[in-house]
Amino acid sequence: MKNSFERTERLLNAHRQLLLAARVEAEQMRALIEDSRREAAVAERYLNAADEGTVPPLLVVRRLAACENAVERNTILLEGLVQRALELSKIEILLKKRLEMRQDEKSKKELRLWLAEAIDTFLDQVAREKSRN
Questions:
Q1: Rounded CA gap, 28 and 116, in Å?
Q2: Nearest to 23 by CA among 99, 85, 111
Q3: Axis crossing angle, helix 57-132 with helix 2-49, rounded to the nearest 10
Q4: Which of 9, 27, 48, 88 has the fewest C-beta atoms lying within 10 Å of its C-beta?
Q5: Using one digit for the tens of pLDDT, what is the confidence trace for 2-59?
Q6: Are 100 and 8 in contact (CB under 8 A)?
Q7: What whole-number distance in Å separates Cα of residue 31 and Cα of residue 14?
Q8: Residues near 63 by beta carbon (within 8 Å), at least 6 away in sequence
Q9: How far apart are the C-alpha atoms of 92 and 100, rounded to whole Å?
Q10: 72: Cα within 13 Å, side-chain hemisphere
């Protein structure tokens, strides 16, 4: 029982660390998406403001396409990270419930032992009183 309890605690801690890592990775991905969106906005402004001879339009168009592609790709990756974080959260909740059940079982066993000892003590006292009489 003790090993199972400790194993569940270690598993819960490992899932908490994985969940934290997934959240950090998701935040980084959100920042990458925002950076790509800003770069795409800049490229669009250059494209809209480009006069003949100032900025090569093909370069700006390529940059705009690359930024939009990066936004799409990173958005898909972010959705995957969010799904992973949700799955890890569900597992963490299940592990917490398992841990609570094991703690409850441990408490019930301790309570049964205490109650058995109290009953034995009471029966011993009753037996001593009968032997005195």
A1: 57
A2: 85
A3: 160
A4: 48
A5: 677 788 888 888 888 988 998 899 999 999 999 999 999 988 888 777 666 666 678 8
A6: no
A7: 26
A8: 39, 43
A9: 12
A10: 6
